[in-house]
Amino acid sequence: MSGDLKITDDDLNNFVKNEIPGFILRLKGGDTTNDPLGAMVIAALTDFAAKQQSGTSTVSGLSGTYTKLAGGQAPLAESVTLQTDFGTFCAGIKAQIDLLVAGMNKAGTALHDAGTTLHNANDEALSLTQMMTILAGATPTQPNSSGTGGTGGTGGTGS
Question: Is the entire prediction scored with pTM above 0.70?
Fold first, then answer.
């Protein structure tokens, strides 16, 4: 094994088009097929973050669960404090997940742009002769229209 790592266009495209969107889908709780528990947890977190006290919930069986969260027997003040604090805690986690999703979207765009730039750079690469001419301080020659090469110089003998 040579120890070299090669990332092909296909690798980069697969990561941008499949892996990142799949990760974002799981973060948003939308992968109910492959990650049903994770989807339920994200939905419950979202409900608690919104302090859902009504009978509506995005999660089956969790309707009104927020009001059942109690630090003792209701109507103790601690129960209300616990509900409020837990809702605030969930809102903070939800905000961080949203930031992570935004960051993953930016990373996907940056990787796509990097792949495009590298691909374009490969197409526009200089030949070794062109690079050496530039480094030597001379103006690189261009092939003439007949394809027989440029006029070039003698390399600068001085006077």
Answer: no
